[in-house]
Each structure stands twice: as C-alpha cells, then as structure tokens.
Amino acid sequence: MRLNQYAVYQLKADTSVRHLRYKSYQYLKENHLRVDVEHYQQVYITIMPKEKKPEEIRSELEKKLPARFTGNALNISDIIAVTKEGVSTAYYVDKEGLVVIPGFFRSSSSTALLTMDTEGFQMEGRQGSWMAADETVIDGKHFFLLVSEKYGRSAAYAVVDDQGRKAAEDTFQGFDEETIRQIWQTISLGHEKPPEISQKPEMEIWQKYYENGEYLRSAEAYGEQNYDMIDGRINNSAKEHTKNRSGKRESVLRRLREKQEEIAARYGKNPPEQAQEDRERNRK
C-alpha cells in the first residue's frame, strides 16, 4: 500500500540532548553532530493528500498546531517525516528551510548490512569498495545509493537494498522518479507468492475405481464386500481363517474317501459301487 502521511518528531525531554535543541543544521555539521532518531520522539502523525508539499506542512504547523499534537510549537531541530506514495523522507526544520536528512530512519531488520555510515562495502560482481551516499525508505524498506570510493561521483551510483542487493539500474540522478519506479517494481516482485501446487480434488468412489488400473480394480472388486468400499486400496483380502476352513474341508473329504475305500474292500467291491448301494439304502 502506497501511503501518504506525515509525522513530526521532536527531541526528547532529556538533558543528554539539550546541546542539540534549537541548533541549526549548519551548527550540527560544523560540530560533527548527527541527527539520530534515537534522540527523538514522535509527537504527531496524520494522513495527507499526496499533492501536499513539505513546505506547506511546515507553514500550517507554524500557524496552528492540530488538536492531537502532543509536543511543543514547531521549531528548529524538529523533524518532519513525509511519506508520499510510500516513499519516506525526513526533513530537518532549519532557519532557512527544510534539509533532507538521509539515514534518519533506522532499519527494523536485524540483518541489515548497510546504513548511512557504511564504508568499504564490497559488492558481489563489482570491483572496488563502496560507501553509502544517500538513503530512502520505500514501503518501509531501506534503499541506498552507493558511490565508488575510487571514482567518487564521476561514476554512477549503485542502487541497492539494505542487504546490498541490486534494487534498480545504476544512475547518475539519485533517487529520481525512474529509479523509484524501478525500486517499486523490485518490491512488487518480492511480494509475489510462489505458484501454488494445484491440489488434486477428492475423487468420487467410481472415479477411484476407474483410475486405479484394470488389475487392481478387478482384485479390489473381488475382495471388497460391496462397491462402496472400493477406495483404491486392496485392504479386504481373504483372511487367514478362511484359508484354514478350506484346509479343514479338504481334510474331511479325504478321510471320507478313505472310509469308503475301507468299506468297499471289506465287501469286495469298488468304492463307486459301494457308494451307489449306500445311496439306494438311504432312499429306502
């Protein structure tokens, strides 16, 4: 989502930052003092039309503070952080205007490799060492312009994320409209979900029956008790006790034949003749 909002930060009510309060940006530079988000607290945030300019925001706040503004009157050393179309920029409120402050926003990623203090960075596939020259925050993510420590600004900037990965084509123009467009494209590609493996829908019983193959269908249809139990697995095969019953039946028939042969031999007849006499006797 491409947000359009702004927030105001003021120095904390802490004696450790008293020397920074109401100081011009020039004073900070001359004394090698940095503008650090850790020294500030947010006192106001609101949405805004994307057409609104930072200078207009400052003018409105100097005339009248909003009802939900929890800080003091806007003054030098305050920060106005503007997010326009998802791109966040921090402005230092100075005497003569607003000064862009790279590196004000800290990366929320504990694995970030780059900050505005980065020097001597080695990029994969690139020769030489690089240092951070500028930073912007887009969709909550940090991106940097890296400049060659050997060639300086005579060479194009490398545009990377906070891991040092390429985020856009090299540029001489800094974070211009085209570079930001390319970064947005990189972000959108990162948000794409991997293609899902299509799940095969659950089949009806008759579909399983036809998909399983002729041999398995025949075997399963023979073994299952009814067609509602055909599920693609032969899991109702003959039980061991069935085999035992068959064996017992064979044993009984064998003993019966032996008995018939014994009786026939006793009376001097063949077994078939003796069996016929037994059947006639039973009829009577």
Q: How would you describe the overall organization of this protein?
A:
With 284 residues, the chain is an alpha+beta fold. It has 4 domains: 1-105, no CATH class; 107-191, no CATH class; 201-237, no CATH class; 249-283, no CATH class. Helices cover 31% and strands 21% of the residues. It has 7 helices and 9 strands, in the order E-H-E-H-E-E-E-E-E-E-E-H-H-H-H-H. It has helices spanning 25-30, 54-63, 177-191, 205-211, 214-223, 240-266, 271-283; strands spanning 5-11, 40-47, 79-84, 87-93, 98-100, 130-138, 141-148, 157-161, 166-171. Strands 1, 2, 3, 4, 5, 6, 7, 8 and 9 form a 9-stranded antiparallel beta sheet that branches. The longest helix has 27 residues, at 240-266. The relative contact order is 0.07.
Shape: elongated
Distance between the termini: 103 Å
Poorly predicted tracts of residues: 214-218
The number of helical runs is: 7
Question: Any idea how many domains?
Answer: 4
Question: Helical content, roughly?
Answer: 25-40%
Please state roughly what percent of the residues sit in beta strands, choosing from under 5%, 5-15%, 15-25%, 25-35%, 35-45% or over 45%.
15-25%
Query: How many strand segments?
Result: 9
Order of helices and strands: EHEHEEEEEEEHHHHH
Sheet with most strands? 9 strands, antiparallel
Structural class: alpha+beta
Helices and strands in order, then pairings?
Layout: E1 5-11, H1 25-30, E2 40-47, H2 54-63, E3 79-84, E4 87-93, E5 98-100, E6 130-138, E7 141-148, E8 157-161, E9 166-171, H3 177-191, H4 205-211, H5 214-223, H6 240-266, H7 271-283
Antiparallel strand pairs: 1-2, 1-3, 3-4, 4-5, 4-6, 6-7, 7-8, 8-9
Helix pairs in contact: 6-7
